[in-house]
Amino acid sequence: MTLEALATQGQTTVYDSLAASIGPKIREIRKAYIKESFAGFQQTEHRLETVANIHGIEFINDSRSTTINGTWFAMESTLRPLIWIAGGVDNGNDFTTLRHLVRNNVKGIICLGLDNSRIHEAFDELDLPMLDVVKMVDAVQAAYYLGARGDVVLLSPACASFDLFENFEERGIAFRNAVKNL
């Protein structure tokens, strides 16, 4: 099976698909059935969910990523330039572990939350455009204006949502609605 035939793209999907194929291979399930299941996989809401492609800018809802690890996988799976929407209630994360990915893949950071000081501490020295906002609609609009054809706007907060939202689902729905209203 080619990588392009997978229902979702990215390095993380390749890892997940390889791991998920071990069991069926051991059970001697036909390759055709395995390929069909990988090609038809449905995206999970709020986890690398493509919301829209507007003027060549892809908007991805990864609101479920409330940790550094989740955001690392989201960034690593996107090979195009990113405008990253991050922030919320910090869980004591070490944002500097993302510095290499941010340096190489991110062209701007939109900080969504009431206290973004730790995000600024980790990334201000990279001299990227950074903007602080407290409304999702403002985050999406700023990311859209910063983006260009071929870019990805990635909501992958690496933080809990409780400063502005009831939960990560509400945050993801607010992102979807803001994108649809562009």
Task: Name its key features.
182 residues, alpha/beta, Protein-Tyrosine Phosphatase, Chain A, six-stranded mixed sheet, 7 helices
Explain how this protein is built:
A 6-stranded mixed sheet has the order 1-2-6-3-4-5. The chain contains 7 helices and 6 strands, in the order ααββαβαβαβαβα. 40% of the residues lie in helices and 17% in strands. By secondary structure, the protein is of the alpha/beta class. The longest helix is centred in the N-terminal third of the chain and has 16 residues, at 11-26. The model has no long low-confidence stretch (mean pLDDT 86). The protein is globular.
List the helices and strands and how they pair.
Blueprint: H1 11-26, H2 31-39, E1 49-54, E2 57-61, H3 68-76, E3 82-86, H4 99-105, E4 106-112, H5 117-123, E5 130-133, H6 136-146, E6 152-155, H7 168-180
Parallel strand pairs: 2-6, 3-4, 3-6, 4-5
Antiparallel strand pairs: 1-2
The CATH architecture of the largest domain is Alpha-Beta Complex
Widest β-sheet, arrangement of strands: 1-2-6-3-4-5
Q: Say which CATH homologous superfamily of the largest domain is assigned.
A: Mur ligase, C-terminal domain
The oligomerization state is single chain
Number of helices: 7
Pattern of helices and strands: HHEEHEHEHEHEH
Mean pLDDT: 86
The total beta strand count reads 6
Biggest sheet overview: 6 strands, mixed
What sort of overall outline do the alpha carbons produce when their principal axes are compared?
Answer: globular
Terminal Cα span: 37 Å
Helix content: 25-40%
